[in-house]
Design goal:
The structure is a single chain. The protein is an alpha/beta fold. It is built from 44 helices and 27 strands. It has a domain at 872-1207: TIM Barrel, CATH 3.20.20. The chain is globular, with a radius of gyration of 37 Å. The strands form 6 sheets. Strands 1, 2, 3, 4, 5 and 6 form a 6-stranded parallel sheet that branches. Strands 10, 11, 12, 13, 14 and 15 form a 6-stranded parallel sheet that branches. 40% of the residues lie in helices and 10% in strands. The protein starts with a helix and ends with a helix.
Length: 1259
């Protein structure tokens, strides 16, 4: 029994054990750590970004496309593109998506043969093309300069795109260049490529047992320190073993090998030995494995790459290995890793069992993918932040370092003297945003743009119909109804009501206060006031649909509220009754535009019918008529030239400071009616940056009287002067017939749709063009008018009465109607009072009569320098910093009298802070000048150094100087009692005939450039050519015009000092923006080729530019006194006006100054003397002196920014300079310009590639 119980009990225990084991054993197979759960390795690429440390696609863009992006579609399979069917093309967006690429260091690589020549220029081009590539694909790529941005990009499903420079030869042994690369977004640099540098050995030296190694010199260690201070990742791929160890020892931050493999597995000098790997672990750095077959060895399969990855993991840990495929930089990659689409296969295989190595866990794969690289990047930033207050050692690269490495370096480096000191300083650390440019518009309906920008019609006469039909009574008038159904409005000239306005997507309208010419000399003013009143009442009656607008910015406010922006225009200057006081009061009442005439001649202006009368005596625009233009400018009222004669058109376009419009006119060349605009006038409209708004009236359009005829007029203007200069001025309700297809205001969308469509025999309009046409052009003009108003706000109000003879000559009987202008004082006051009383009644505002003072109180001219900044546009102190201090600012005391410093005892030294304060200097363009001797050599590098020293100087004196890159900042600096400090480049040779370099100078803060210095360029002649009667002049070549266009697009001021007369005229013609001569004088007073002739001065006036007078004795002539400078200043004022002259002293750039202007402390004496009586010239008024001091320059700067903003959607120009242009200028250019072959017309891309592959190892 006991035995039975025992068996039962034992059996139960056994059963329990079996059950427990049955449960427990499977559980033991389930590991508690998630990393050991079976998974696909590539799944981690959905959780963290895969970051590849090295891709040379940008170099293939150079080899295959010459850096032109227009014809390369990165969003296509490039294997199908014959040009890209080469053995080193592995990358495009479709394969990147397939490969789950999350981050990439795109490499700005130039070959070692550029060393000591044009490496810096070529590197800038590669940086530029990388940025343009990123900009072109904003939905797929994101520009990244900070570690945290990598995850931002990944979360947006974009490839985090960083820039790396491959090879320290790109900095040309200049720390200033390194700093400026950082400003341009570079975040990583390999210390060398495959060539030794004066300060570092490259890896091939390790295969040469007899080589004398310098490893990393003392100056090379300074490069490491400066990269640490900047926050730039140090990359040790390509360097020698000695350099690896020295950099690992010396760097404060973690380092990487961006594309290297393991020496123990493949003994190639480019790979990393075990002793170095162990040091990498100590430094917490990272080795990113290269896929190139020659560096991997083995059987040339994916397994060999895995062997290298595993080796690093097993020796120093998974925290120290990453991916650096070297795609597009090599000619052969292993089977299984054929292109960038194959990364997932690598990760899958690393995670799999059964391959003879421990499978990688999720966490390990995340590290490998990208977390290791992000860790390094963040550590580099941490060190940067810790070092932000550290003193920067001003250690030059020793002369012997350079000459020992390359005895011929001096020939191309322009060292001069016994050493070349490299600048060290504090950069601004500004991260400049990328501007996004879109090269192509998607297919769209043209009318869709009317949902994005307001359609603004320049002219609608509904208010006159309100008078004619309703007698201006609105009580019974229902504008929110179809007026076609209202018998009272059954009129051939009625086309407008709110339902049709909504259907037509009308966003803005100038409503016209028109009275007939038969009111002239009678009650035109009173009747005009009535029309202003009815317009305002109409707007008030429909507040949900219409918004009263008097400022340009209010147009978009109205549009965003889905209301019609409603502006008031007067049609015909007869409405002001030849009285400026009435014009001013109209402005107070909200009028923002006026046609100078209607169809009747005025005492001060001719109307268009006169042009059809060959016997007519034309007065065009009289002197008093010019005063009307000036007063409209001062008030901020748009000048409208519809209805005026051709002579008045031209005179107003010449005289107005602000842009102008034709609110409802068409093209004379298509319909020769006196109301239309001739081609010569259209070209002047372009010069003025004005606007012609096409009229729809059948009588002005001609043709078959259909919508197509209106389109012909619109296209004509676009094709002749550009889409920026055409708009819509339908003239609805002011005419009795409009074309078929444009029957009323509901039809605007049909017009825009048709303009955008293909197949009509003209180039379809793009979205941006249609936006301009719709309303952006008008808004631009309106804003420019306001800008001029604001600049003229301190101008004296004009109170000049119209001359008696002007009135009597126009209409001898006028006295019968006006009680005679030749009246007593009391009677004239009575007449003005009557008008004022009428305006008071209409507006409900008590308007005081203005008191005008004809004479200004006596003042000292220099007093204006306390009210506006004195801006000198040219000072060469930075060049003296190079000459006397070798750009070393440590011991330089700018806040001392440099006349007492023996080092600065030079006839070229005129500037220091004490004398700047005494001279009341408020703004200065500091010049980054390098000699023409640097042309074709190291001009770009030297220019970068000069930019750097200017920035460091400004940084060193923050209480006295303020870095300025925008026009509005000038007044900010002035109000803070600081010198607004801008950077100018003197001489287009600094861009090395590369638009990419120009763009990057802009990013670095350059805001002005002289097109040449004293040497001719492949694309522009300099002024000395004008003294050579036998010279063959090219003036400004087609590519030179591209430089002008790109400067306009960037927002860089074009400076025409130093250029030839032909270049002056070409640039003045071609530039969309106003221009300057930063330091030039008058040829008529001193016939030197550097001075400006009268014909050019007149063109400067047309362009609304400025000539800044140079003080240099040789350019001034005379008795070498202050009076001679005054003669030049007065000459410009007298010939073209005080709005076109300024100060460009050229201090520190010349060796002799006139008596009385010995240095920068003397500006006040100049201004005092200009204002004084008794010197034989008309004393300068306060307003004139303010213009001279700085307001003229600020006006130009703002106009340049305006043009920049208008061009923001234009394609970036990437046209290379033609090969013949270069070689015709300098047949030896190829000796220093190492990419000269790339400028030749290529028979095929393969010939260039074969040449490149023969001369380059991997890159």
């Amino acid at each position: 029994m006991n035995r039975k119980k025992f068996l039962i009990f034992g059996g139960a225990i056994t059963l329990i054990v079996i059950i427990v084991l049955a449960i427990a054993l499977p559980l033991t197979l389930i590991k508690s750590n998630d990393d050991n759960i079976s998974f696909k390795g590539s799944d981690v690429l959905d959780e963290v970004p895969l970051i590849d440390g090295h891709n040379d696609f940008p170099f293939n863009l150079y080899l295959l496309e010459q850096n032109r992006l227009k014809d390369v579609d990165f969003n296509s399979d490039l294997r199908l593109n014959p040009k890209w069917q080469v053995n080193r093309s592995f990358t495009d967006l479709p394969r990147m998506r397939q490969g789950k690429l999350g981050g990439q260091f795109w490499v700005a690589y130039v070959r070692c043969e550029h060393n000591y020549k044009d490496a810096a220029e070529r590197t800038l081009e590669q940086i530029d093309v990388i940025k343009r590539l990123i900009n072109k694909y904003p939905n797929d790529m994101m520009y990244v300069t900070e570690a945290d941005q990598i995850m931002e990009a990944f979360n947006q499903k974009k490839v985090a795109s960083m820039i790396e420079i491959e090879g320290g030869h790109s900095i040309d042994s200049r720390l200033s260049v390194l700093r400026l690369y950082y400003e341009l977004g570079v975040r990583c640099m390999t210390l060398t490529h495959s060539c030794d540098l004066p300060w570092a050995d490259s890896s091939p030296i390790d295969d040469n047992p007899s080589a004398v190694k310098k490893n990393l010199t003392d100056w090379g260690l300074k490069v490491v320190e400066e990269m640490n201070r900047l926050g730039m990742i140090i990359d040790l791929s390509h360097v020698s073993e000695g350099v690896m160890l020295a950099a690992l020892e010396h760097s404060k931050a973690q380092v990487i090998f961006s594309h290297s493999s393991v020496y123990a597995l493949q003994n190639h000098h480019r790979n990393v030995k075990n002793n170095v790997l162990l040091k990498v672990k100590e430094k917490n750095g990272l080795v990113m494995i290269n896929f190139y077959s020659s560096f991997i060895g083995g059987n040339d399969t994916i397994d060999d790459v895995i062997n290298h990855i595993n080796y690093v993991r097993d020796l120093i840990g998974s925290e120290h290995v990453g991916i650096g495929g070297d795609y597009d930089g090599v000619t052969s990659v292993p089977k299984g890793l054929e292109d960038v689409s194959k990364y997932p296969d690598l990760f899958d295989k690393l995670a799999e069992e059964g391959h003879g190595y421990e499978p990688w866990s999720k966490d390990e794969l995340k590290n490998l993918a990208g977390l290791n690289l992000i860790r390094v990047f963040k550590d580099v930033e941490r060190i940067r932040d810790e070092m932000k207050n550290e003193n920067i050692p001003a250690i030059p690269i020793p002369y012997d370092d350079i000459m020992n490495e390359n005895p011929d370096a001096e020939k191309v480096w322009i060292i001069g003297g016994i050493s070349f000191l490299v600048v060290v300083g504090v950069t601004l650390g500004i991260v400049l945003p990328l501007t996004v440019f879109k090269s192509n518009n998607d297919t769209f309906k043209g009318s869709d743009v009317l949902d994005e920008v307001p359609l603004i019609d320049g002219h609608n006469d509904l208010p006159y119909n309100l008078y004619a039909i309703e007698r201006n009574r609105l009580n019974d008038f229902n504008f929110d109804s179809d007026l076609r159904l209202n018998p009272k409005w059954d009129s051939p000239s009625s086309f407008t009501d709110l339902p049709r306005i909504r259907q037509g997507k009308l966003g803005g309208q100038f409503w016209v206060a028109y009275v007939g010419c038969n009111r002239n000399y009678k009650d035109a003013a009173e009747r005009t006031l009535e029309q202003i009143d009815v317009i305002k009442r109409l707007i008030n009656k429909y507040p949900n649909d219409m918004m009263y607008v008097t400022e340009a910015d209010q147009i978009m406010e109205a549009f965003n509220q889905k209301k019609v922006a409603s502006m008031i225009e007067i049609e015909g200057g007869h409405s002001i009754d030849s009285r400026l006081s009435v014009l001013r009061l109209y402005y107070e009442l909200g009028v923002r535009c006026m046609t100078l005439t209607h169809s009747c001649d005025l005492p001060w202006a001719d109307s268009s019918p006169i042009d059809d009368n060959p016997n007519a005596v034309k007065k065009n625009l009289t002197d008093w008529g010019l005063k009307v233009v000036e007063e409209m400018n001062r008030l901020g009222m748009i000048i409208d030239l519809s209805h005026v004669s051709e002579g008045v058109m031209l005179a107003a376009l010449e005289h107005s400071q602000a842009q102008v419009i034709f609110s409802h006119s068409s093209v004379y060349a298509l319909q020769n009616h006196h109301r239309n605009v001739k081609d010569n006038v259209l070209l002047k409209v372009k010069e003025k940056n004005g606007l012609v708004m096409i009229n729809f009236y059948s009588g002005f359009i001609g043709g078959s009287d259909t919508i197509d005829d209106v389109i012909n007029h619109i296209n004509y203007v676009r094709d002749l002067i550009g889409s920026e200069h055409v708009g819509i001025g339908g003239d609805y309700d002011g005419v009795d017939k409009v074309p078929k297809g444009l029957e009323d205001v509901s039809k605007y969308p049909d017009l825009f749709d048709k303009l955008a469509e293909e197949g009509h025999g003209y180039k379809p309009w793009s979205k941006d063009e249609l936006k301009n046409l719709a309303g952006l052009n008008l808004i631009r003009v309106f804003k420019d008018v306001e800008r001029i108003r604001d600049t003229l706000k301190d101008e004296k109000i004009l109170d000049n009465p119209i001359p008696y003879d002007d009135i009597k000559n126009q209409n001898p009987d006028v006295g019968l109607l006006t009680k005679s202008r030749k009246m007593t004082k009391n009677k004239r006051i009575f007449a003005v009072t009557i008008i004022v009383v009428i305006i008071e009644v209409v507006s409900g505002v008590r308007l005081p009569l203005s008191v005008f003072q004809s004479q200004e109180d006596t003042f000292k001219g220099s007093d204006v320098l306390d009210e506006v900044p004195l801006i000198d546009t040219h000072n060469d102190l930075p060049w003296n910093l190079y000459r006397f201090e070798k750009n070393n600012l440590d011991e330089f005391d700018f806040d001392s009298d440099l006349r007492l410093n023996p080092k600065w005892d030079s006839p070229n030294s005129f500037t220091d802070l004490p004398r700047i304060r005494q001279g009341k200097l408020g703004g200065q363009f500091w010049v980054a000048y390098v000699s023409c001797n640097d042309n074709y050599k190291d001009a770009a590098e030297r220019t970068l150094e000069q930019i750097d020293v200017i920035k460091r100087l400004i940084n060193k004196y923050p209480n006295d100087m303020m870095y300025v890159t925008e026009a509005d900042q000038i007044m900010e600096a002035f109000n803070q009692k600081k010198v607004a400090s801008m950077i100018e480049i003197e001489g287009g040779h600094s861009i090395d005939s590369r638009l990419s370099v120009l763009r990057l100078y802009y990013e670095l803060g350059v805001r002005c450039m002289t097109l040449t210095h004293s040497c001719d360029l492949p694309w522009a002649d300099s002024s000395p050519i004008d003294d050579n009667p036998s010279a063959v002049k090219k003036n400004l070549t087609d590519w030179g015009l591209k430089v002008v266009e790109e400067m306009n697009r960037l927002g860089m001021i074009i400076d025409l000092s130093h250029v030839s007369e032909g270049v002056m005229l070409a640039a003045l013609e071609h530039s969309k923006a106003q221009v300057i001569f930063s330091h030039s004088s008058v040829y008529a007073l001193r016939n030197h080729h550097r001075n400006v002739k009268n014909n050019v001065l007149l063109k400067v006036k047309e362009k609304n530019g400025v000539v800044m007078i140079n003080f240099y004795s040789s350019f001034i002539g005379g008795n070498n006194k202050i009076d001679d400078v005054i003669n030049h200043i007065n000459y410009v004022r007298d010939l073209i006006g005080s709005e076109h002259v300024g100060i460009g002293g050229d201090y520190d750039g010349v060796s002799a100054m006139p008596e009385g202007l010995e240095d920068v402390s003397k500006y006040p004496d100049l201004f005092d003397k200009l204002a004084e009586e008794g010197h034989g010239y008309k004393p300068w008024s306060k307003d004139e002196l303010k213009n001279l001091a700085g307001l003229n320059l600020i006006r130009v700067f703002k106009d340049v920014e305006r043009v920049r903003d208008n061009m923001k959607s234009e394609d970036i120009l990437d046209d290379p300079i033609p090969y013949d242009d270069i070689m015709n200028q300098n047949p030896d250019a190829g000796l220093c310009r190492t990419d000269i072959e790339n400028y030749k017309p290529q028979e095929s891309s393969k010939s260039l590639l074969s040449m490149s592959y023969e001369t380059a190892e991997t890159f």
